[in-house]
Amino acid sequence: MFKAYEFVDKPTYEKLGDEAIKLMDTNLLLTVMEIRRILDMPMIINDWYFGKSFQQRGYRSPESNIGAPKSAHRLGKAVDFDAYLKGVRQEPDKIREKIIKNRTRLPYLAGLELGINWVHIDTMQRSGYEQGKILTFYPEAGKAKWI
Ligand SMILES: [Zn+2]
Q1: With 0-12 CB in 10 A as exposed, 13-18 as middle and 19+ as buried, what is 31?
Q2: Which residues surround ligand 1, an ion (CB under 5 A)?
Q3: How far is the CA of 87 from the centre of ligand 1 (A)?
Q4: What is the structure's pLDDT at 81?
Q5: In the chain, fewer beta carbons within 10 Å around the N or the C end?
């Protein structure tokens, strides 16, 4: 089961405690939980709570200067994660492949970023949306494709 501190940074968690979960989109939480079931592997979103460095891979507060200003992370509609099998970090491309293969189990998945060394998923709709479609996109603006 995921904890609120996995989805927010330290200052936000210090302010809100477990209530910080309210900053996250319900559809995003459902999607993350289903991906966890599909992968059947531990997933790491933020790990600052355990003394490590990730803090900005879920919700990004207005004070955060990480990433794009209009990013789904700012709406609580995105997470970045890595998945581990027996302690070994899995290739993000392999994880994305599994996600796409199981897409019918992920009706709220709206965005999947490609070409990055972690997995970004989101539930933020964009113009051009069609039911059941996922927008795959690259960090470089304008390079995107509905699948
Ligand atoms: Zn991201």
Answers
A1: buried
A2: 78, 80, 120
A3: 22
A4: 98
A5: N
Among residues 100, 143, 91, which one has the least CA distance to residue 121?
100
Query: How many residues are present in the chain?
Result: 147
Q: How far is the CA of 129 from the centre of ligand 1 (A)?
A: 19
Distance 75 CA to ligand 1 centre (A): 12
Distance 19 CA to ligand 1 centre (A): 22
pLDDT profile of the chain (147 residues), mean per 10: 95 98 98 98 97 98 92 97 97 98 97 97 92 90 88
| 99 CB-near residues (< 8 Å, 6+ apart) | 35, 38, 106, 109, 112, 119, 121
The pLDDT, as a whole number, for residue 140 is 82
User: Quick one: tokens of 105?
Assistant: 């189990």
